[in-house]
Amino acid sequence: MQVWQINLIILWVTQFCASAGFALSMPFAPYYIQTLGVTDLDAVKLWATLAAAGAPLSMAIMAPIWGLLSDRFGRKPMLLRATCGASIIIGSMAFSPNVLIFVLLRIIQGMFSGVASAAVTLVACNTPEKRQGFALGCLSSSLFSGNMFGLFIGGFLAEMIGYQNTFLLSGALLMVSSILVLFGVQEKFTPAAKPASRVSWREKWAALGPGTPLLLLVIWMSVGRRMDGAILPIFVQELHGQLDGAAIWSGLISGAGSVGAVLVGLCGSVIMDRYRPVVLARWIATGAALGMIGAGLVQSLEFLLPLRFAYMFFAAGFDPVLNTWLSKITPTNRKGAIFGLAQMAKSCGMTIGPGIGGIIARVIATRAVFWVSAVIFLLFIPLMLRCDRVMTAKSRDAEAAE
């Protein structure tokens, strides 16, 4: 087997462990907040929104720095930093004395985390171009299958051993992931040569390649996908009618969504290199919008299960499609920087999305969050077509200049 294939297998396992570690505890943060003394449901929505938006905000600030360091020192060190940092900080959340400390730890987690982005960068830089769609699709399936496993057992663990112990178990799984990376992943890294003269910011931006308009799509996609991030567990609690048992239902529903995400990751690994990203993304956005409309109309938890599956079957395809698109049009020695910026863009969307969702839930209704998200997915299609035309024009200009 070639090195990239061995790395892909090991990274699949490590990302499964890391994703499972996150999913064991973080989706149940609104319930944990209520055990820290916050009982008013409107106040819970506020703190849950701050917790959901705080980590992506700090991640957005740090992601470009980690991306530049990745191009300078290698991708493996950045993946180790992310997994170790997440392990220590999430484990520390078990000892939060109040909700303020918990939210602060979430913000710190965003500064040092970014596990998925680091893994995507490593795979993109060490996989032959003709196999990148396959590799990134496989990696996506590991993230969502780990998420599915974590969500499925996380709800039961939260009820059986408590939220604090679940955070400790999450930290342990992430530490296992970092150990696997340390001893299993191989990387032959050659840093890019330093320019002989000072380079302007305009030249640095141009050197990233013609794919920079895709960063706008990453932000837009993240806003739509994360708008219900802090609200879904509360929506489940509202439909269930009480806090007791809500974590189990939340885990089952989120797990059903992860099953759909795993399937689209596996399907994507087969078709990603065969069809243009713009074609795949159009169908993904349409399906995700329909799934969100259905969620906003649902009246029982039993119907929310298949709807969440259907929604995630489409929505989970955004990441591998955009990552593959971005990787194929970005120079190899700039992929660390471009994926760092992509993580920043994604984190910005992950900050804006829950913030908008929290405001809509408090001012209008929880269900309105799903309908607004559906509109964002539908508007993604014309925005994507516009970006595709801009990138095509930039590529033609670059070829003419040569």
UniProtKB/TrEMBL annotation:
The keyword Transcription regulation does not apply. Gene3D superfamilies: MFS general substrate transporter like domains. The chain crosses the membrane at residues 47-66, 78-95, 101-124, 136-161, 167-185, 205-223, 246-267, 279-297, 309-326, 338-362, 368-385. Residues 7-392 form the Major facilitator superfamily (MFS) profile domain. It is found in: Cell membrane. GO terms for molecular function: transmembrane transporter activity. Keywords: Cell membrane, Membrane, Transmembrane, Transmembrane helix, Transport. It is a multi-pass membrane protein. Its main location: membrane. InterPro entries: MFS, MFS_dom, MFS_trans_sf, Tet-R_TetA/multi-R_MdtG-like. GO terms for cellular component: plasma membrane. The keyword Metal-binding does not apply. This is DHA1 family multidrug resistance protein-like MFS transporter. It comes from Oligosphaera ethanolica. The lineage of its organism: Bacteria, Pseudomonadati, Lentisphaerota, Oligosphaeria, Oligosphaerales.
